[in-house]
Amino acid sequence: MSSQTLIGQATIDPQSSYVQSSTFDQDAFDQVVMSTYARFPLALERGEGCRVWDTQGREYLDFVAGIATCTLGHAHPALVAAVTRQIQKLHHVSNLYYIPEQGELAKWIVQHSCAERVFFCNSGAEANEAAIKLARKYAHTVLEIDQPIILTAHASFHGRTLATITATGQPKYQKNFDPLVPGFHYVPYNDISAVETAIGELDEGDYRVAAILLEPLQGEGGVRPGEIAYFQKLRQICDETGILLIFDEVQVGMGRSGKLWGYEHLGVEPDIFTSAKGLGGGIPIGAMMCKSFCDVFQPGEHASTFGGNPFACAAALTVCNTLEQENLLQNVEARGEQLRVGLQAIAAKYPQHITEVRGWGLIDGIELAAQTQFTAADVVKAAMEKGLLLVPAGPKVIRFVPPLIVTEAEVDTALQAVDQALAIVTTS
């Protein structure tokens, strides 16, 4: 591959400043859209499989997948057919009525997980909000706790709503949004003694720990897998105390880890867990699942106008069925192993710059050494020049979350582009 070759036939000058053609006016966009994202100067207009094209016709290999969302890649025939059929039939009705597609999707989830009940919403943040509300009601009505506290982890990420940024153990997401929602306390991830200490110290008067909310693998926190011994001890503590164990599976669930759910890597079952992102393959849908013993919601206590509508459920059902029909979990395991082995070989070439390669399945990360003069974003930009789209997970971790349909050849191509990108940033 030459220094100017992108994935496929399109080319781009490595020294380019990503100036867009007249087909897309970035300045006009910025005048009317709020600047809540630090966007790369790249406008994408179509995709197919694991590849996308920008408004200048340049082709890129997509290892972002809408940030672990496009499970089946772009324009998958099964998903296109399903949403086309559904939009022509019935796309939205109120949850005041029974929605058959919603029931079928809930049935699939229950049959393929430890869940016994499902609530549908639109996003991961909403799913986590529902889990927080359910845990609080359970605390009040079953555990008889006047002031329930939910433990979450440092470096966690649970969403952008006011409650979920409070649950998120990263101050950078909370700055200037106080007063935050009370009732949360943070502990180090994978540190069981910190959990035990917090439970003891917070049990005072009307205050008690009611739930523990964790990601099986921290995504935004740097692609950090949970430790089996840690999570098994957590399950034991929760069983002994009545504390609810909640897993945020928004990023790691729906097959991305090589198993359908992240908790399967840990040998424990949560009482409540959440999903979104990959569940709809890019169509907005979220879900909060729970065991029946903690299903304490009553009519009118929680709701979502768009949650579980026929259109979103048809898309999600297609994702679920395609995961099985195309044996995608097997592909995730094989391609994930290929990716990690390749990344470890690259890391060996840059020992002074890369400290670790880690992950599960097709959610993987490279951690840069603290002393490096370049950031994950710098590597992402250099990879973009080579026709590969990546996403940071913090300032020093480069994240790899391609569609679950990614091929052996595409992983090899991505590894070549990563090697070239690192060569650029380490010599500049």
Architecture overview:
The protein has helices at residues 26-32, 65-68, 77-89, 100-111, 124-141, 162-167, 171-174, 192-202, 228-241, 310-325, 328-349, 376-385, 408-427, and strands at residues 44-48, 51-54, 59-62, 117-121, 147-153, 184-187, 207-214, 217-218, 224-225, 244-248, 272-275, 286-290, 354-360, 363-368, 388-389, 391-392, 397-400. It is of the alpha/beta class. The chain folds into two domains: 26-75 and 328-427, Aspartate Aminotransferase, domain 1 (Alpha-Beta Complex), CATH 3.90.1150; 77-325, Type I PLP-dependent aspartate aminotransferase-like (Major domain) (Aspartate Aminotransferase, domain 2), CATH 3.40.640.10. A seven-stranded mixed β-sheet has the order 4-12-11-10-7-5-6, sandwiched between helices. Strands 1-2-3-15 form a four-stranded mixed β-sheet. Strands 13-14-17-16 form a four-stranded antiparallel β-sheet, with helices on one face. Strand 1 and strand 2 form a beta hairpin. It is globular, with a radius of gyration of 22 Å. Mean pLDDT is 94; it is low at 1-22.
